[in-house]
Amino acid sequence: QVQLVESGGGLVQAGGSLRLSCAASGSVSSINDMNWYRQAPGKQRELVAHIPRGGGEYYSDSVKGRFTVSRDTAKSAVYLQMNSLKPEDTAVYYCNAVVANWRSYWGQGTQVTVSS
Residue 78 and residue 34: Cα distance in Å, rounded? Predict the structure, then answer.
């Protein structure tokens, strides 16, 4: 079992920045991939950033060049630095962890609201 807790969401003006954090606990040694997803009202949940255990980050086209994902294995944490935020980035952001047997765990989500 893995538990994930996100923090760092909030309200920010367009062009601003936020840093999301996700702290993992439980069977953290079994975590391979860690991901950030987001879900805007009326839309499907989408993958924003992906960082596997050995590195090699992936970003969706909509955030590439503005968002940076990083991972602190020692602290069992993953972060999402979001710069140059746009109103269309408004969503609930979810941390996701995939463990060795491909089971997936989710955090409770944190709201990010970008005002124009």
Answer: 7
* DSSP assignment string, 41-110: TTS--EEEEEE-TT---EE-TTTTTTEEEEEETTTTEEEEEE-S--GGG-EEEEEEEEETTS-EEE---E
d(CA 111, CA 63): 17
Residue 15 token pair: 């062009």
pLDDT in tens, 36-93: 999 999 999 999 999 998 879 999 999 999 999 999 988 899 999 999 999 999 999 9
Block residue for tokens 């969401």: 9
Could you tell me if 13 and 86 are in contact, meaning their C-beta atoms sit under 8 angstroms apart?
no
